[in-house]
Amino acid sequence: MPLFRVIFAGIACLWAGANGLAQSPAKPAIRMQAPEGYFAARVEGNDTVAVIQLPTVIVFPELKFRNEKERRQYSKLVRDVKKTLPYAKMVYVTLIETYEYIQTLPDDKAREAHLKRMEKDLFREYKPELKKLTLSQGKLLIKLIDRECNQTGYNLVSAYLGRFRAGFWNLFAGMLGASLKSEYDPAGKDALTERVVLLVEHGQL
Known about the structure:
The chain is mainly α and about 200 residues long. Helix content is about 60%, strand content about 5%.
């Protein structure tokens, strides 16, 4: 149960952040798609030229492992990112979808009541799956959620659920060696994680 609470703290921070988003989510662009078996095309002079959109390919320097232990650690990181990244993205998408509703609530009291209900709903919805995560996967999920919202979990929880509750969740995290105050550092200590995330996002791992 403590592990689940640590993981939930990261998820709760994103739900809390819904009250603080500055802008409404942009409407998705409408794309015209050619029927299966056909290509889009454009006419250039007397020629008809097929228009084919190629997928983005991420290229990194080849990793060199000093020993078998490093190779296993990397394989574990890839496995853990594939396991936890979908949760982080799913929570963020849900946050965006609920943003417009939160803005319709009349005052802070109503918004706070709604967030409390969402807190209970999160426990019920995510608990069965998140309880299956290991401790290292739980810590990674918290970081990946921070990556998705660009703010530390502690700051979001403190701003929208109060300092006491932020301290409560961070205490649970601290007991297991994690912290909601830690920042995702894609160019520094989390560079390897960011590399794996980008490759997974583009279907290259």
